[in-house]
């Protein structure tokens, strides 16, 4: 007899963990943008000689809250990997979840190094550290997304269309907050908003590529392989451009007019290709044609 409640399926658990990782990403950006990453008197895991700082909106609390959210999310990520090993999950799902856990210590180490030793050691609170922290976080987020998608069973034309729709909407919404488009001031709040919407778009592209690849290999009813390959190519190109904008959203380079124009071009390419993919699959699955049911356990 299983102690797990019937509503707690692998897909729901993995999706929740992926969502918390997205929020963690945005919290990390907000923490760095407000300068709170240098709070807590450069202590870790303590914060200004306390386990719990004063519960008011101040740099110490922001940094501490980011750490707590990261700790809880880290345990949930380990839980995803454990479920793939002890549950009935296929090899690729198990591999994605296990890799996410394998690189998690690296992310924790880089984060701890950044907020404690700072510039006292090579690669402390520097561009290289920020870049590593961002890239590893994006890798973990992507792997969790794949584990969620693959662990849920087969896809369908409708799921493919939904994934591309999420990607297109997320990328277009990220333009509102992007530093490449002067709609709003690129404040800490705007930066967090940019990464929430941009990462939602990224996750949609990850799902679109995964479903399109499945359609190419095994076929979906009502979707020919040529169309699936086109969708996959457009989504992959959009993802490459989007990752570029996500990297340029941080202070990894001296943000001159050249980099702003390059950022704008990358954002435009990401949006155009995602919208092109959405146009390619318009109407797909609307007649109720789907593949095998999606497994939810």
From TrEMBL:
Pathway: Porphyrin-containing compound metabolism. One of its GO terms (biological process) is heme A biosynthetic process. GO terms for cellular component: membrane. The chain crosses the membrane at residues 21-44, 64-86, 98-120, 132-152, 159-180, 192-212, 233-258, 264-281. It is found in: Membrane. It is a multi-pass membrane protein. GO terms for molecular function: metal ion binding; oxidoreductase activity. The keyword Cell membrane applies. The keyword Membrane applies. Keywords: Cell membrane, Disulfide bond, Heme biosynthesis, Iron, Membrane, Metal-binding, Oxidoreductase, Transmembrane, Transmembrane helix. InterPro entries: COX15/CtaA_fam, COX15/CtaA_HemeA_synthase. This is Cytochrome oxidase assembly.
């Amino acid at each position: 007899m299983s102690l797990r409640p019937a509503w707690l399926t692998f897909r729901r658990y993995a999706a929740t963990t992926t969502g918390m990782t997205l929020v963690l990403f945005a919290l990390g950006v907000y923490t760095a943008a407000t300068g709170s990453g240098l709070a807590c008197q450069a202590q870790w895991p303590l914060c200004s000689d306390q386990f719990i700082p004063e519960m008011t909106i101040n740099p110490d609390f922001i940094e501490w809250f980011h750490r707590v959210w990261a700790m809880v999310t880290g345990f949930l990520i380990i839980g995803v990997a454990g479920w793939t090993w002890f549950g009935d999950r296929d090899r690729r799902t198990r591999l994605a979840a296990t890799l996410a856990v394998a690189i998690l210590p690296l992310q924790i180490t880089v984060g701890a190094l950044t907020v404690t030793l700072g510039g006292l050691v090579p690669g402390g609170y520097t561009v290289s550290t920020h870049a590593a922290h961002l890239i590893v976080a994006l890798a973990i987020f992507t792997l969790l997304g794949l584990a969620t998608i693959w662990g849920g069973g087969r896809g369908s034309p409708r799921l493919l269309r939904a994934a591309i729709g999420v990607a297109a909407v997320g990328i277009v919404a990220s333009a509102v907050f992007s530093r490449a488009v002067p709609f709003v001031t690129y404040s800490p709040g705007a930066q967090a908003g940019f990464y929430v919407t941009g990462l939602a778009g990224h996750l949609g592209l990850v799902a679109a590529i995964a479903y399109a690849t499945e359609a190419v290999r095994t076929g979906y009813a009502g979707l020919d392989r040529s169309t699936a390959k086109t969708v996959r190519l457009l989504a992959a190109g959009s993802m490459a451009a989007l990752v570029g904008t996500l990297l340029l959203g941080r202070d990894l380079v001296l943000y001159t007019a050249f980099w702003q124009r390059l950022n704008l071009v990358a954002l435009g390419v990401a949006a155009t290709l995602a919208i092109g993919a959405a146009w390619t699959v318009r109407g797909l699955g609307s007649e109720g044609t789907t593949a095998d049911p999606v497994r939810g356990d």
